[in-house]
Amino acid sequence: MYPSDSDFFGSDSDVGFPRGDDLDFLDDDSEADEDRPQDKRIAELSREDIMQLQFTDEEAVYRFYKTYAMIHGFAVRLDEVKRDSDGSVIMRQIVCNRAGSRKEMVKKDERIRDHRPLTRSCCPARIRARLDTKIQQWKVVSFYEEHSHELVAPLDVSMMPEYRTFSVSDKAQAKNLHDIGIRTCHILGYLAAQKGGYANLPFNQKDMYNLITQYRKEKVKGGDANAAISYLRGKAGNDSYFFGKYTLSNENRLENLFWADRTSRIDYECFGDVLTFDSTYNRNVYNKPLVIFSGSNHHGQTVVFGCGLLLNEDISSYKWLLETFLEAMGSKHPTAVVTDGDLSMREAIKQVFPSATHRLCAWHLHRNACEKVKNSGFLRDFKQLIYANVSVEEFEVRWEDMVARYNLSSNSWVIQTYEMRNLWALAYLRDQFFGRIRTTSQCEGINSLIKAYVRKKDTLLEFINNMETVVSHYRNNERVAEFNSKYTAPVLVTSLPTLEDFAAKTFTRKMFREVRKEIEGACAMNTEVVIQDGEKLYFKCNVFGVPEIHHVVEFDRVQGILRCECKWFENRGIPCMHIFACLKHQHVEVIPESLVCKRWTKNAKSDFMKSNVDDPSDSDKVLKCRLGVLGAECSRLMDLACKNSSDFVEAMNSVVDTITKLQKRGENPRNANLDDDCVGDPLVVKSKGAPKKNSKFKQQRKCSNCGVTGHYNKSCPNAPN
């Protein structure tokens, strides 16, 4: 048995249907009568009842028959119409959507696509209403209820195209989830879980993909590059400390792009002594190389200084990017640069950052070793040698022994890598500060985040939005670490509590753990003065039980400067255990100021913020505050309104009305703030290097209108309207 019409109308505001318990679109002012059709439910109406109905206008007739059809398992469409001499409609016929028959293209022999399923079966079901000019009411003049086809079961009615629809809340949720990088299939699963399963969704998978596709097209309606540039211009208009720059080709297409927001520029000012950037990401629809400038903050976490998209990976593109980055950062040069080893990038660094020490990313180096040398023993020893804190002489001895042991003296990659040893071996770099960075900002972490949020098919605007999501992930980590450092105190566990307590109050929590590890090591060391030259003392330190291995520490008591031959402090900014052993020997209870690297302290960023930079834009603070307050009130509303059906209906109607009102109030052209100049979408870039082995590649389909890949003729931004 078919359910009553009220079962279908939980969200009638979305589909334009009347409530199921009455026929409020009928014209009737008389008193109630149980025998009148107006007082019956739609599902209970007989043919005789329907023939007696009168309606206020043509729209009311259509809404009635559509509701009737939905209850009984079929759909309708408008058919014949008659007008008077003034052009006003005086008769309307509405038929079952399976009325008539398909005539065109059915018997065509040369077809590319398969036939669509037949949806016409000459069904006679229909309703016809005519305007009675005397009383200005629409009366039903004919009604046929028989069908030539099987009616759809009640549980399957929601799958009919005519009744599949998105509510306001479903659309909003789907778009919000898409904006933060959630895949469409996962969005569909999330909404299905909310409604108790896929069977309860008022739409199907294809509808969801069409919705997201249409939403993506709307965001880049004026062109992908135009939308992206407009978005960045909008951010610059709201934040005076935002920086963005781009270049155009002769055809006015976007070539290179760089942007950095307020927080990124402040982070570089505080932690830009060591710069890392990697260009191994090509996750955008134009295959443009993505370069991420990053570093390490005072918590030892990754911070992003800026992002760039390049035309290609040649020297001129990298040089433009580095010069633009330098312009954005107030011409502050880094002291050290860590890269993935690209030759063009290396040459650009020499030209733009001539005084910076260049280091190759250890993570990329070891990954290349795994591809070039299939020997687990060599890979293990090679990795140890990359990080070995030894003298240059000892490194050379260990390298020769390793190459001879694995018989790799003729291996071209091993020979080439050895020639570049001053760019990757710690033995050659240990007297240069790298701030604990040996890889391009923990490439494994950035790689995994980019794969999670940034997709290959992303448009430029989506790409920028998703990159902001990646950056916000890192900034949230910093916020948590900042709270723990400020408002929690560690337990003192070493036998040098005064030094440990000073370190706990000075350094961030992560850096304190590393300092404490060195203090613990100092407790197990033997120290003796071997030379005293005026105010300078020279100590020899060795681990208890291993007297043959020792390190020499120089202590200038006048200037309070200590130097150890292990170069641990010079390389990482953290005093080594040998220095702490000397402080213990001299009964020094606080860490000298010369051994406190400010970039690792709790005040590394706050001091700069107070003295150099204005407060961030108030709009960001106000927006976050409003979101928090509104979210809390919405949670209270859900708790109160979901306890019974009447409260739920009342709350839902109020929320939908408010959303509709605000949407109408906020309607305006999306790209109204674009400048007069129009930026064309970039061309798809051919990636550097040979394709992967054993991989299947097919030629990308190009747009028949402009000849560019990434879209088709129907969605081409350059197509004529």
From TrEMBL:
<dbReference type="InterPro" id="IPR036875">
    <property type="entry name" value="Znf_CCHC_sf"/>
</dbReference>
<dbReference type="GO" id="GO:0003676">
    <property type="term" value="F:nucleic acid binding"/>
</dbReference>
<dbReference type="InterPro" id="IPR018289">
    <property type="entry name" value="MULE_transposase_dom"/>
</dbReference>
<dbReference type="InterPro" id="IPR007527">
    <property type="entry name" value="Znf_SWIM"/>
</dbReference>
<protein>
    <submittedName>
        <fullName>Uncharacterized protein</fullName>
    </submittedName>
</protein>
<dbReference type="InterPro" id="IPR004330">
    <property type="entry name" value="FAR1_DNA_bnd_dom"/>
</dbReference>
<dbReference type="Pfam" id="PF10551">
    <property type="entry name" value="MULE"/>
</dbReference>
<feature type="region of interest" description="Disordered">
    <location>
        <begin position="1"/>
        <end position="38"/>
    </location>
</feature>
<dbReference type="InterPro" id="IPR001878">
    <property type="entry name" value="Znf_CCHC"/>
</dbReference>
<dbReference type="GO" id="GO:0008270">
    <property type="term" value="F:zinc ion binding"/>
</dbReference>
<feature type="compositionally biased region" description="Acidic residues">
    <location>
        <begin position="23"/>
        <end position="34"/>
    </location>
</feature>
<dbReference type="Pfam" id="PF03101">
    <property type="entry name" value="FAR1"/>
</dbReference>
<keyword id="KW-0479">Metal-binding</keyword>
<feature type="domain" description="CCHC-type">
    <location>
        <begin position="701"/>
        <end position="718"/>
    </location>
</feature>
<keyword id="KW-0863">Zinc-finger</keyword>
<feature type="compositionally biased region" description="Low complexity">
    <location>
        <begin position="1"/>
        <end position="18"/>
    </location>
</feature>
<feature type="domain" description="SWIM-type">
    <location>
        <begin position="549"/>
        <end position="587"/>
    </location>
</feature>
<keyword id="KW-0862">Zinc</keyword>
